[in-house]
Amino acid sequence: MNDSQIIREIKDGNAECFEELIHRYERKILSFIYHMLKSSQLDHLAEDLCQETFYKAFRSLKTFREVEASFSTWLYTIARNTVLSELRKHKSVQVSIDESGVVPEAPADRLPESETLRNEKVALVRHAINNLPEKQRSALILREYDQLEYVEIANILGQTVSSVKSLLFRARNNVKTQVEPYFLEPVFADSERVNRS
């Protein structure tokens, strides 16, 4: 069954079918939420917010209209709003590079230099992403981490495709500006060809 058929079943009273939608989308939604929270050091809340997202979706399923958006787009929108609501509660939380959550498993003097440098780069990029305006950050995570198409991102963010491309271009440039002094190689491989896609 496709999503539409499952949703029809649920609306007709077969609530057990919602388990199939959870099975289909849980990993993607959890990954999206995790990456949205990681830079604010709230990633430990990812599973709770993922469950909250599916709970909200189930409660609101009767109002879902396929003509307006696909189920996955609608679900990502609920997830994004749930995360933004949580981030507003924790807006006083500031992440420093030292608190980025990247902790080597062995003391740094025992790690190969390349591993230490990689961990530092990850921390710098996370810090830079955390400093982005919210829409740029959302667009970047949806594209780079969740590999969503421009049209899907546009629907989730309530933007046009060209606006999404512009947001991504600005987000990548902002991250690049913040971390460029520490990198020899590009941060995002496709940052230069963003407008060609």
Structure description:
The protein has 197 residues and is mainly α. It is built from eight helices and no strands. It has helices at 3-11, 18-38, 46-60, 71-89, 113-130, 134-145, 150-157, 161-179. Helix 6 packs antiparallel against helix 7 (150-157) and helix 6 crosses helix 8 (161-179). Residues 93-110 and 191-197 have low confidence and may be disordered.
Topology at a glance:
Layout: H1 3-11, H2 18-38, H3 46-60, H4 71-89, H5 113-130, H6 134-145, H7 150-157, H8 161-179
Poorly predicted regions are: 93-110, 191-197
CATH architecture of the largest domain: Orthogonal Bundle
Instruction: Give the % helix.
Output: 55-70%
CATH-defined fold name of the largest domain: Arc Repressor Mutant, subunit A
Radius of gyration: 19 Å
- By DSSP (H or I, 4+ residues per run), the number of helices equals 8
Short account of what is shown:
Helices cover 61% and strands 0% of the residues. The protein is mainly α. It has two domains: 3-89, RNA polymerase sigma factor, region 2, helix turn helix motif (Rna Polymerase Sigma Factor, Chain: A, Orthogonal Bundle), CATH 1.10.1740.10; 101-196, Winged helix-like DNA-binding domain superfamily/Winged helix DNA-binding domain (Arc Repressor Mutant, subunit A).
List the main descriptive attributes of the protein structure presented here.
2 domains; 8 helices; disordered C terminus; 197 residues; single chain; Arc Repressor Mutant, subunit A; 0% strand; elongated; mainly alpha; Rna Polymerase Sigma Factor, Chain: A
